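User: Hi! I'm working on a homework problem where we have to compare a predicted structure to a textbook description. Could you give me the structure for the chain below?
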Amino acid sequence: MNLIQQNADLFIALASALSVFSAIVVLAWPYLAGDNLSARMKQVSSERERIRARERAKLDAAKKQATLKPEPTRWVKNFVDRFNLLKQAEDGEIVNKLRMAGLRGQNPVLFFLAARLLAPLGMFIASALYLFGLDPIDQPPTIKLVIVVAAAYLGYYLPGLYVKNRTTKRQTAIKQAWPDALDLLLICVESGMGIESAFRKVSEEIGHQSVELAEELSLTTAELSYLQDRRKAYENLGKRTGVEGVRAVVTSLVQAEKYGTPLGQSLRVLAQENRDMRMAEAEKKAASLPPKLTVPMILFFLPVLFAVIITPAAIQVMAMN
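Assistant: Happy to help. Predicted structure tokens:
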């Protein structure tokens, strides 16, 4: 009986010791295990800082390379300052148009302002020397003067037409490559990559298809690293391109940044919509081809066809006579 009592007391002592030990472990476990979330957040923060440092290094290297180039626009700057032409670019509309055409920096603005003043003068002088000096047409001086003024008026719009044509070609190239870029961006985002890394990866891969789009995505990556407001970087992408499909994606990115909405589903839907838009534009061009071919067929094909059909009959009639 005493042995059973001793065994029972020993069991109770061991159970009490085990309970005390378990309670101590439970209370001390948060301090012993460590905070994995904090470590992972620190790792993400260090990765972001590393990306920003790399982008700053790239931009600094680009700036150093740019400073090594000569400055051929000194006379243009002096010309613009002399006639105080920079007032025309104060509203930012000219700068935005040049950015949409892929012309960035101060030099394109100076060249555009100088060309818009010098082109009418050059066209006026060239047309006046041609019409009044060489006298190629037999017309009264009044008609020649009207032609000279019209040439000068056309010269004022030539720089704008050049920028508009360049913008149209650039937007066309971006539209053609944008659905594929969205597919790549969707793959990168769903694989767990951050939006900055995804933009950088897509810019590297899409450069073989569209240099213009790769350039815009690279600029957006740099702005995401520099600007405090990330939404501003997305909005700048939409302004620089001027493409409706890009603006729709920018809106989704801004909403995801502001409200934390899932980005993968939005990118999938937008990629399909942009692909449908690209196909619709191709079908539209194909549908407009028959009316465009009507005039060339009337002018070039039908006369030859009539000649081939009528000539044998005309030869037979002439032989019978």
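For your comparison, note the following. Residues 66-70 have pLDDT under 50 and may be disordered. Residues 132 and 141 are 8 Å apart (CA to CA). Good luck with the assignment!
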